[in-house]
Amino acid sequence: MAYVLAGGRGSRLRELTDNRAKPAVYFGGVSRIIDFALSNALNSGIRRIGVATQYKAHSLIRHMNRAWNFLRPERNESFDILPASQRISELLWYEGTADAVFQNIDIIESHAPKYMVILAGDHIYKMDYELMLQQHVNSGADVTIGCLVVGKKEASGFGVMAVDGDSRITAFVEKPADPPTIPGDPEHCLASMGIYVFETKFLFDQLRRDAATPGSTRDFGSDIIPYIVKHGKAVAHRFTDSCIRAAEEMEEYWRDVGTLDAYFDANIDLTDTVPKLDMYDREWPIWTDQIIAAPAKFVHDEEGRRGMAISSLISQGCIVSGAFAKRSLLFTGVKMGSYSRAEETVVLPYCNIGRHARLKRVILDSGVRIPEGLVVGEDPELDARRFRRTENGVCLITKPMIDRVIELGL
Length: 410
Fold this sequence. Notes:
Blueprint: E1 2-5, E2 26-27, E3 31-32, H1 34-43, E4 48-53, H2 58-67, E5 78-83, H3 97-102, H4 105-111, E6 115-120, E7 124-125, H5 129-139, E8 143-151, E9 159-163, E10 169-174, E11 188-199, H6 200-211, H7 220-231, E12 234-238, E13 254-255, H8 260-269, E14 297-299, E15 301-302, E16 305-306, E17 308-310, E18 313-314, E19 319-321, E20 324-326, E21 329-330, E22 335-336, E23 341-347, E24 352-353, E25 358-364, E26 369-370, E27 375-376, H9 380-386, E28 388-389, E29 395-397, H10 399-408
Parallel strand pairs: 1-4, 1-6, 4-5, 8-12, 14-19, 17-20, 18-21, 19-22, 20-23, 21-23, 22-24, 23-25, 24-26, 25-27, 25-29
Antiparallel strand pairs: 2-3, 6-11, 7-13, 8-11, 9-10, 9-11, 15-16, 28-29
């Protein structure tokens, strides 16, 4: 059984997660972030999936009900959405990642899985979990932890593992100032991906032990994993051994799109001629909600008023009416009015860009209506007064921000 932890807000995405959890944030033109972990599970042959939700989960639950309702009990499949529902105590929601599994032990037991794959629901990557499961069984490990090779300077933002020559984990520390490095490679570290494989019975024993431990934060990275490293056998599984790459993908792709700049860059990267992440790989599809909408439409062919897009992803239901898009993503149902321009812009579903508007290095939250003639991306000081502007010069625009601009005449 794959168990996806999808309860986090993702506060570093700022207003983009005011009304949705991070795993529900749109990505890549048609998908949501959580679709990557779920698709990896499905493509790996796992047909029992549970998803724990907590923070502002409505849009996430609605998406999963629409996109993932094809798993059928009569085929020995299951898909359980598990909101925090005070099942253990009327006073408690999920206290931590481990508690989000502990509170649903009875539901998991009803499916009787022999092994559990615990997943974070907020990263972009393609991975075959079956290979990690095989390593777990063959090594006799109590827990197997998915890990990335990262530079020593980056490692302080992760849980970091010290390993011996057989990939057995000898220490696990959360966000260390001086992280342990890979044996024989003093410039790199092994960082946790937040992916764990357990035998189910062993996992439940650890969760019950941890729940009875005073002072525990009920967290895998802070409590469960360090205890097993000290008292049991924990083994590292390197992402390079199970990552999925299409023929054109030159390197292993994993992104934590946890900041506005990282989210913007990962989306815009998809517009490259040969992107680092292949969303067109039919051998490892990213499953999502198949919205019923008309094909994208480009109209008008006059000088200065020509509907066209260059190096862009244009989703179904979009109308580019005498407008120009370059290195941009237009999600479902976006409309661009005549003479408008979008360059390096991520436009979430059902936005409307008014005539003569010019947008550059912008993220438009879903449903935003850009007034005619609005210019963003050419005057940094004005942009910062009106909208959320990042260190890298990316502007996030939401409905309340536009309403404020109109109301105050900014």
